[in-house]
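This part of the workshop introduces the protein records we will be handling. The structure tokens are whole numbers drawn from a learned vocabulary of backbone shapes. The record below serves as our worked example for the rest of this section.

===
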Amino acid sequence: MMAASLDLHSLEQYCETLYNPSNQASRIQVESLLNYHFPTFSLSASSTSASALTSVTTSVAAALSGIDDDSLLKGHSPTINTPLESAIFCRRLLESTKNPYALMQFLVNFGEQIMARVEFATTRLRNLVEDHFSTFTTSEQLGLRTFVLSYIYQNPDVQSFVITAQAQLFALITKLGWIENEEFRGLVDQIQVFFQPGATLIYRTIGIRLLAAVTSEMNTPSNRHAAKYRKIAVSFRDVQLLPVFQFALSTLRSSLMISDPDAEKLRESIMVLMRTCLSFDFIGTQPDESSDDIGSIQTPSSWRTVFEEPGYLDVLWECWKKFSSPNSVLVMESLSQAASIRRSLFSSDDTRHIYIHHIMQETILTLKSGAGQNKLQDEGNFHEFCRMLSKFRGTFQLTEICEFKDFEQWISLVGEFTTRGFHSWKWSPNSIPYLLTFWSKMVSSISSAKQSSQDYIQRITVDLSRAYLKSRMECAQASVDGEVDDPLESEEELTSTLEMYATVARSKYLESGQYVVVEFKDLLKKHRGLIQTVTSGANSPSLNTSTIKEQLLVVEMQLTWLVYVIAALIGGRISYQSTSEQDQMDAEMASEVLGFIHQLQMWSAQRPLFIASADAHLYVQSAIIHFYTQFRSSYIGEESSKSVKVYTILGERWGLSGPNQMLDAIMNSSLGNLRSSGDPEWRKQEDQLVVRTLRLYTQLAAGYSSVKHIRKLDTTQALLKNHNSSDFRFLNPTSKSADTAVARCRMNYYAMLSRVLFAEDNVDADFWRFVKPWELTLDQVMLALEGSSDLSEEEIRLVLLGIFKDLRGFVSSITNRKQYGLFFEWFYPAYTPIVLRAIEIWPHNELGIAILRFWNEFASNKSSRVTFESSSPNGILLFRETRYKGIMLYFSVLSSSLSGKYANFGVFKLYGDKALDQVLEVFFSLMLAIPVEDMISFPKLATAYFTMIDVFTADHMTGLSSMPPPALGYIFRALGEVVMLQNPDTSCSSLACSAIDKICTFVLNWMMKDKIRKDEDQGELLSNGSPVLNAAGSPNNSQRSSVELTRGGGPPNSGNSGGRLISKRRQQQQQQRQETHWLVDYLLANKEILSYLLMVFFQVVAFENRSNYWSLSRPLLGLILLNRDFYVEYTNSFVQNQLPDRREQVQTAVNALMEGIEYNLSTLNRDRFTQNVTTFRRECAQMTLMAVDSVSEDNGML
């Protein structure tokens, strides 16, 4: 019988409607019904189902006829009370239904229909198993696993996606039962039914797919159960992974004897299984699978026999030769893995050498034979073969490789293959980086090889360098013709590839470099000839302009490639290894590049007429900037004194006899990149050029010696005096870009200029000259704000927007007290009124954000730069100004001010200064104006806010006389919700934990001290408050007089005035002691706040996998100690809400949480509780738990 009153026919109709709905409403209705009849008992699913059921329309209510109200509130059918019962119904569905719609999932994503083809029942079973597997008994677990295996065996002809989904379910069950149930571990033996004598190919294929699914599932990590799943993975690795791999290898051997065409699917499945086995995370590092540079495969020592036997490599190479694509590509992937086996696996050097030489011998046979060459004509095989070579060299040492008797033949064939590969860039461009990786690693360790091997490798590198260079020239031609995508578009990938090329070329640098110089000279001569043709026949009607344009474009793109190549070669220089001959070659190449730059500058007036491509202009100038960058890293700086040969040649040809002259040339040459042509079609490329040029300037100004050189250059002096040139379009505030790098150009520009300006010590006069343009602009704005200028409001806004970005960049580079003092003296108080006025006029504009970001930088005391004389009021004045700006929209300004330690806040209260109180009042008002949801949703806003709250609770909150209740409620709600928020970045959560811990610590300590004071006062009353009686029962007069004095009694003229003064003071102290702190009063009157926070922290610890458990445990202890009654009540409810067979285990874990914990917040007590939390979290991770209530529904009291 199906769930509740749902018969099989109706169920199949619902499944059909679910995956082929006529409209979205009907799909939601049917989904609610299926959730009701097939519940998963998961918290998220149940809440979703309940929400859907409570919001159904009238038509849905009709569809749910027969379901009573109690069942609706329960969220699932009354006939299903446990996950096991729900699993049984899913099993019956699989056994009974014949409708294909019950085995298909239909998804709608962005309006496009996507067939996911995952069975409904299988998906539901997977959810139940994943969340509630531990509630099943051992026999139930085995029964479910056996059922799934039987279902797969009995339905071999169903669609492939059905087998895949069932195999994944079988794998999940096997994984979850692996540790507890020994029966689950005989995996290879249990699937032998698919390989029994007479089994068809389809059964064998399904068996292999089952093994692959289990292996893949075992290697899948989990954030929630990381420790448990890793333990399972390690056990599977040690017990079954090797037998699975050996079984796959033996099955692969036997498949070679099968001639049936259907065997291709079996072979494909075997190769996928073998790849999955060797991709297993053997040591728990979880490398990024998208990266090819993940090191060697760390197979355990127990695998040694597999790889030391020659049969392993023999069968792989035989399969590769026999299989056709795409199976041959999968085999080559396995060979690539075989070439990555760790060196230390082998039992001896001899066995390792046999293995290495076997791979090398097969490589020779492949590259020499016609069959092998034909195989490599397939793009997939070619690419994987290149990967195999790269991994082989990355795993094994060059000395081992060189010991191969046919090493010279092998390296020669690989060199020829590489040359062909370089020229196959159109066909397989992504393979070239692997070939370069192979050769760069060969060259990097060449010193460890024998001299004869070194010479042989170096001779090959010369040919490779030439071949690669020729291929780049061909690529430039093809890119202009539009045949391929231009590699120059991605400078990052390009430079990374050229770094490897430079390593190869510098191996035999004089020969390789000379070829580069010759090629460059030939192209430069051709470029010069085309320019002369243009200039001499500019007005000639016979001049074919379009042909000239195309020829110029091709030559310039080829020269651009060569500039990038030369830059990489110069940047690859290693100072302690470089010889004078190599430095001379660098100088030769640099001289040719400078000649090309000079030629471009001489032709700059007419060039735009003949270079119609804005991209070409960007590529050329970017290559020149990259050349400057690499030259600077090698020959400008601390090592420049050792580069005499370079500057000797550059001095003879270009007058650049030293680093200073070269810096001057760089600045002069690249300064034009900051100017705009005014052509809107070139705007995007020019913006990118500005970004790269400013990046170069920043690097030039970063070095200690180079920035001092730049400071003295005429070009730099002119730039400092005219830094706001109208030619620099990026300084125009109306120029906007969606690219954040472009948007930051102004700040980067002035950060660089600030670093250059302050490179010398005595710069007072230069500073005042530098800020003069800003003064003129701000003075004009002051007049405009007063109504004495013709500037419009929009013009004022744009001017201020630009200037505050400039000021922010300028201040960001200030690093010491003297520099900051100069800027402070200029800016404050002359121009701070502009800040306030601008905020008042444009509070919600980007100008307000720009001002606040500037002020945040201005108020930041990094490197202790905000330090004033002890007699100076500037620190307090700086804080007082912050109250008007920082807290309005950007809380980080206030947190910087409160934590900057340049203002003594005790002075404010002492002298009646209300600046701090006013700041906090504005802070509360602004905080309340922002919804809590927005406060925690925007990362930057949340970080600034919770940083401020952490500072506030640490130093200022408890010192206030009171706080507005709405502000307090808001703070506590925000603290709770940000802790509850699931976010990989736990910085805000940790800040909230810190703030709550400080509040709990204060309140708990106050209550403990108050109890001690009350106990002391009560003891004093008992000892002094009652008169002592004499033997007759009447008061003793002398004792009575003493008590009265203490109470302030006695006759007025008894001479006890001193005693009365002491008594009054004592009474005042006792009265002050009896006054409860306002924060304690608030929390005692609103205990639901503590209850809410306690629930939040408890559920986060119990249900979520966080990286900041230490931070979470600190406030949780305080919350428990402050609210012990509720904690007991809540944990009892928590235990009772679990499934019956799990309650005892949960109760034990809850009891252990407070084991050995005392009623205090000492460090020892805290540390013990943190250990208990870790243990509690580990226990919870082993179980699937149910929450008491949704925490988000319990914070209405705030």
In short: DSSP finds 58 helices and two strands in the chain.
